[in-house]
TrEMBL record:
<feature type="binding site">
    <location>
        <position position="84"/>
    </location>
    <ligand>
        <name>substrate</name>
    </ligand>
</feature>
<keyword id="KW-0413">Isomerase</keyword>
<comment type="similarity">
    <text>Belongs to the glucose-6-phosphate 1-epimerase family.</text>
</comment>
<feature type="binding site">
    <location>
        <position position="89"/>
    </location>
    <ligand>
        <name>substrate</name>
    </ligand>
</feature>
<feature type="binding site">
    <location>
        <position position="66"/>
    </location>
    <ligand>
        <name>substrate</name>
    </ligand>
</feature>
<dbReference type="InterPro" id="IPR011013">
    <property type="entry name" value="Gal_mutarotase_sf_dom"/>
</dbReference>
<dbReference type="GO" id="GO:0005737">
    <property type="term" value="C:cytoplasm"/>
</dbReference>
<dbReference type="Pfam" id="PF01263">
    <property type="entry name" value="Aldose_epim"/>
</dbReference>
<protein>
    <recommendedName>
        <fullName>glucose-6-phosphate 1-epimerase</fullName>
        <ecNumber>5.1.3.15</ecNumber>
    </recommendedName>
</protein>
<dbReference type="InterPro" id="IPR014718">
    <property type="entry name" value="GH-type_carb-bd"/>
</dbReference>
<dbReference type="GO" id="GO:0005975">
    <property type="term" value="P:carbohydrate metabolic process"/>
</dbReference>
<dbReference type="GO" id="GO:0030246">
    <property type="term" value="F:carbohydrate binding"/>
</dbReference>
<dbReference type="InterPro" id="IPR025532">
    <property type="entry name" value="G6P_1-epimerase"/>
</dbReference>
<dbReference type="GO" id="GO:0047938">
    <property type="term" value="F:glucose-6-phosphate 1-epimerase activity"/>
</dbReference>
<dbReference type="InterPro" id="IPR008183">
    <property type="entry name" value="Aldose_1/G6P_1-epimerase"/>
</dbReference>
<feature type="active site">
    <location>
        <position position="167"/>
    </location>
</feature>
<feature type="active site">
    <location>
        <position position="271"/>
    </location>
</feature>
Length: 315
């Protein structure tokens, strides 16, 4: 029996929100909503969900969807008059019928191209003209690749600046059984301590309480190791120098209407980002930020998982 071919399907999802479903020949899949340009599902070839989406997520505009991979643009965080994490995650995107060519990658057979341009209302709160092109792709091995291309299309000669993040929610067995490797000894800004700057210790990051840190000058590869599931997520990134690590823990989770009280135990956000230094584009200039996610089995070594094979493996 022949294996199913890669496919792209456009259909309706929850509350009539349109989505594009990508399927790869061996069974992995990705769903991306036109609302927010947001990936809300990424499954491996066994049908296991790899991203966390809250059971209380609100799939109704103008609320952003709690989980998956929201896109933070034109700002990360809360600054000035713009809403938290900007507006890209709660706008309707369009299918991009004329995407510019991206570098050839023979392992990618299925992808979706979306585009966001400012509305008149957006222009009132962020008075710049831009084109934000997003390609969501599913590699032959089930890898999830997100490529963002943002171009300044101002006609008045003005540059603009922005910050950015792929706000990825990973699904984990239990937050107390997870560790993150690749960020040791780096400087970070602690959002729970007024963005004060600290240096991470030499050990892998583990979780025992609320955390919201912005790591600076991070490597291109970060590993998220789930001991219980014996699974390692590998995050590779390009054009995104920072990495945000966030878990709300119990008290903050209970205060969030769109997150279950105990759901913080089963999620971890590790976000490829450009936060510390804003990106500035002159008219006609374009910026590209890319993230590739993969999930691989972890092996035990002397009672511990051995992520070094992952971090030192081929890019």
């Amino acid at each position: 029996m022949a294996a199913p071919k890669p496919s792209v399907e456009r259909c309706m999802g929850v509350n009539g929100l349109e989505k594009i479903v990508l399927r790869e020949g061996r069974g992995s899949s990705v769903e991306v909503k036109l609302y927010g340009g947001q990936v809300t599902s990424w499954k491996n070839d066994h049908g296991e969900e790899l991203l966390f989406v809250s059971s209380k997520a609100i799939f109704k505009p103008p609320k952003a969807i709690r989980g998956g991979i929201p896109i933070c643009f034109p700002q990360f965080g809360m600054h000035g008059t713009l809403e938290q994490h900007g507006f890209a995650r709660n706008r309707f995107w369009s299918v991009d019928n004329n995407p510019p060519p991206l570098p050839a990658n023979t392992s990618i057979k299925t992808f979706a191209d979306l585009i966001l341009k400012p509305s008149e209302e957006d222009f009132k709160i962020w008075p710049h003209s831009y084109e934000f092109r997003l390609r969501v792709a599913l590699g032959s091995g089930g890898n999830l690749i997100s490529t963002s291309r943002i171009r300044n299309t101002n006609t008045d000669g003005r540059p603009f600046s922005f910050t950015f993040a792929y706000h990825t929610y990973f699904s984990v067995s239990d937050i107390s059984e997870v560790r993150v490797e690749g960020l040791e000894t780096l400087d970070y800004l602690d959002n729970l301590k007024g963005m004060e700057r600290f240096t991470e210790q030499g050990d892998a990051i583990v979780f025992e309480s609320e955390v919201h840190k912005i790591y600076l000058g991070t490597p291109s590869k970060i590993a998220i190791i789930d001991h219980e599931k014996k699974r390692t997520f590998v995050l590779r990134k390009d054009g995104l120098p920072d990495a945000v690590v966030w878990n709300p823990w119990d008290k903050r989770a209970k205060a969030m209407a769109d997150l279950g009280d105990e759901e913080y135990k089963h999620m971890l956000c590790v976000e490829a980002a450009a936060v510390e230094k804003a990106i500035t584009l002159k008219p006609g200039e374009e910026w590209t930020g890319r993230q590739e996610l993969s999930a691989v089995p972890s092996s035990y070594c002397s009672g511990q998982l051995d992520p070094q094979k992952v971090l030192q493996g081929s890019a």
